[in-house]
Amino acid sequence: YLQQEEILEQECIALISSLPKEKGWVASHLYKYQGFWNPPRHIQGIMTCQEHFEARDSDVFLVTTPKSGTTWLKAVMFTLINRMQYPINQEHPLLSKNPHDLVPFLEIKLYADNQIPDLSSFKSPRLFATHIPIFSLPKFVRDSSCKLVYLCRNPKDIFVSLWQFTNKLRLQEMGSNSLGETFDMFCRGVNIYGPFWDHVLEYWKESMEKPHKVFFLKYENMKERPADNLRCIAEFLGCPFSNEEEESGMVEQILKLCSFDTLSNLEINRTGRLASGEENKAFFRRGEVGDWKNHLPTEMAQKLDQITEQKFSGTGLKL
Ligand code: A3P
């Protein structure tokens, strides 16, 4: 999140200077690009993906709103898709690497900082992650037969998680952002990849229209019925569990390996850092549904509920 303005291409600088601007939650300002707020580095990453990324029909994308459980689903989908290549044993890559190092973000990692990555070593089915809103996805992703698993979460828990996470990313001398100030910004949609509600709604609609293309998943549902959801994801991706796998307890093994307790207690996640500098442990906080109750005053909770009700009214979507 630091030094972002220093590594932008001229084309991006020109575009960004024409966009609406607000104070950011961490270091950089946020700008409204194609309807969503982001720091310049993310916007450049999105632009580079839009221009250069070519999807394969067999590609799989995990698309999420930030703090909806991306780290968890990265682990689950990586283990699911690669279960032949990486059986669950002491050598499993998740035991020595953070999920973000195994499943890269398109715009924040692979195509960040004006890089055009060589993806030739990625074996099909390739698994990528992204937070890019649906209408900003590279054209190839929308036009090809690739599949998208979309994960979202209740906005009260998202807000609390994001507020705490971004405060951890701020340099000590910057101090923390207050709950009240960030709450107002979140309600106005001014947060990375915000407005939250628009992000979710656009993918929800797409999942209704194209259920073979977009699988819509809620964090709360995954917590409540992890095995059923994992089986559904496997079916959706065309790699259902065989009878032998079911009998051997493969579903439960994947879920155990990827559980909050297992992942957060691994040495790599307690002490390691991502290449981009964030501490791995910052991605594991409580991992519970409803932790907002420990942080949000009633009026704030009610306000978020009201906005959610209003935004989702008539859509059939509830969070
Ligand atoms: P909390 O801050 O509410 O604890 P993301 O990965 O999208 O950044 O989301 C982070 C949120 O997912 C954090 O929520 C984090 O604790 C939670 N999380 C991380 N790993 C998890 C896991 N294996 N199972 C459940 N939740 C997990």
UniProtKB/TrEMBL annotation:
GO cellular component terms attached to this protein's record: membrane
Keywords: Leucine-rich repeat, Membrane, Repeat, Transferase, Transmembrane, Transmembrane helix
Keyword Transferase listed: yes
Keyword RNA-binding in record: no
EC number: 2.8.2.-
Protein's cellular compartments: Membrane
Molecular function in Gene Ontology: ATP binding; protein kinase activity; sulfotransferase activity
Family statement drawn from the similarity comment of this UniProt entry: Belongs to the sulfotransferase 1 family.
Protein name: Sulfotransferase
